[in-house]
Amino acid sequence: MHPRIRTIEDYHAAYKQAAEAPDAFWAEVAEPFTWRRKWTSVRGGAFSPEGQSTWYDGARLNITENCLDRHLATRGNKLALIFEPNDSKTRHVRYTYRELHQHVCQFANVLLNNGVEKGDRVVIYMPMIPQLAMAVLACARIGAVHSVVFAGFSSTAIADRVNDAGAEFVLTADGLNRGPKQIPVKSVVDDALQSCPGVRRVIVVEHLGWPVHMQEGRDVWYHNEAENASTTCTAEEMAAEDPLFILYTSGSTGKPKGVVHTQAGYMVWADYTFRNVFQVEENDVYWCTADIGWVTGHTYGLYGPLLAGSTTLLFEGVPTFPDAGRFWQVIDKHYVTIFYTAPTAIRSLMAAPLDHVLSYSLSSLRVLGSVGEPINAEAWHWYHQHVGKGRCPVVDTWWQTETGGIMISALAGVTPSKPAHAGLPLPGVQPVLLNQDGTEIEGNNEEGYLAIKGSWPGIIRTTWGDHERARQTYFTPYPGYYFTGDGARRDADGLYRIIGRVDDVINVSGHRFGTAEIENAINQNQFVIESAVVGYPHDVKGQGIYAYVILEGALPASHAEAQVIEASIIETVVAEIGKIAKPDKIQLVSGLPKTRSGKIMRRILRKVAEGETSSLGDTTTLLDPAIVDEILAGKK
Ligand code: WT7
């Protein structure tokens, strides 16, 4: 069977084959790639107590040969990348596969000339510009491990990641555009690197033409380095299980963890899921709005589309600049056929006058996708009706940084698409619902913890530098399963609806934060003794961040004083993590509801933040039940 699934019959046949004869299935899916050497075993270690799978072990390859070189003979003059700048008046830039290949090779040579070697970690902190895509692929070309840090994270967050990854190289730019604002990216990196003594080279791409500080002996301009760098570069031969990238993501404990994906399995998974979920055709123009700094941008902005030989669009801007019609204008301008975005973006655009979308034709569109958080039925219908004009299937794709690619989703136009439901699992994915005690819940119309039985090619391999953490987080809660951290419901037809996180992780505008991570940041503030953070429903962001904060000394005497302190707390969070983690509401309290053993009762804090104050449950076991009344009275 060809890995492309085109009909519901194909789907059922593929699902059955992947479950019953996985080795044969995944060998066939992997066949069309360029391998320097074939694998000796398709799957290994999937159920080992170490929680570490191997895929295509023994194989040798380079993922960029599969993204670029493989297409040159047939698609050399086809567009690989379209760059649409932040400002709609700035001209777009287009790269064919041949041109992109040359740029990636040249960037790879710049890395080599600057001492980057196979296995070295390279942190990339860059705007959404073509050089970001080239930098990522250049790392992969020479076997360096890329770790992209979203260019909205603070200098402290960069430093933590650089140090955790042991990166000696940083790739960045002078600055970036974000809607009407310009942000001096290089100076954020400069601040970060004050706490990163291990970094020996910073390569800076000129984008805004801003003057920047260049540290002698450490910092170099990309354009100077590229001048004499060749545009050909032999790809490094990698082992299937060599790390390809590290991507930091938040968990329920304080410190973000470096999710590690490897070469062969990730490649196969990215390509297989991309082509099947979006039902990609040769002439599609595909646009994933996610920043390459997130896993969605890795798998579906970059690797997936290039592996499939598609044309991918990269956009530097934001959905609302110069106005709320920008997405739709870009779709019409470049004849985008497949559009993949996040519910939070849809909800923010729904709030704008309908004219912004109605004044564009959008007739090129064929498939719509959603990712990052549950899409509510209202947003689903608006997207389907006003963007897809009722004729484009909507795929609501559930997956995680750890899964490497899409796990549960409709295959566009092939399997059922139902509002607010991710749908059926992809062939090769075996979701289960578990009870608290870890037993599988059989049958439909059931709800439980979502876990995955067995392995799949894109599964997380480890957390960088701390394999035990990966084991504890994903593989020991329910032995024999990968634990997702999500709760889900299976409807009467077996379609999955993701309900949300069941751990201390909140999802703000499709971005993941650990409540402990935000609390740690807040606690850095000079006025603060202790804090507790919970999520609450937010119209646009999905979840908002609600922080209960205990101050050193008495509560502020005036509203003005409270405002100053709250602003200072926000500033601390922005400095520690970044603007994306700013609390939406801060409530200053004199205490937190704790049990006699000192454990914060988050259930109560969550209910108050959600406004469900009539059902607080039993509060008599609290150390100080009166604190609940104070919190209720001061609710924001
Ligand atoms: C968490 C993973 C996967 C790329 C973007 C986020 C939530 C993701 C959906 C969806 C409902 C979703 C889950 C998941 N999530 N997609 N279609 N429906 N929830 O990746 O940062 O690793 O976050 O996002 O809660 O566990 P991430």
From TrEMBL:
PANTHER family: ACETYL-COENZYME A SYNTHETASE (PTHR24095), ACETYL-COENZYME A SYNTHETASE 1 (PTHR24095:SF14). Residues 11-67 form the Acetyl-coenzyme A synthetase N-terminal domain. Keywords: Acetylation, ATP-binding, Ligase, Nucleotide-binding. Residues 517-599 form the AMP-binding enzyme C-terminal domain. The keyword Repressor does not apply. Its EC number is 6.2.1.1. It comes from the Bacteria. This is Acetate--CoA ligase. GO terms for molecular function: ligase activity. Belongs to the ATP-dependent AMP-binding enzyme family. InterPro entries: Ac_CoA_lig (IPR011904), ACAS_N (IPR032387), AMP-bd_C (IPR025110), AMP-bd_C_sf (IPR045851), AMP-binding_CS (IPR020845), AMP-dep_synth/lig_dom (IPR000873), ANL_N_sf (IPR042099). Pfam families: ACAS_N, AMP-binding, AMP-binding_C. Residues 69-455 form the AMP-dependent synthetase/ligase domain. It comes from Hymenobacter saemangeumensis.
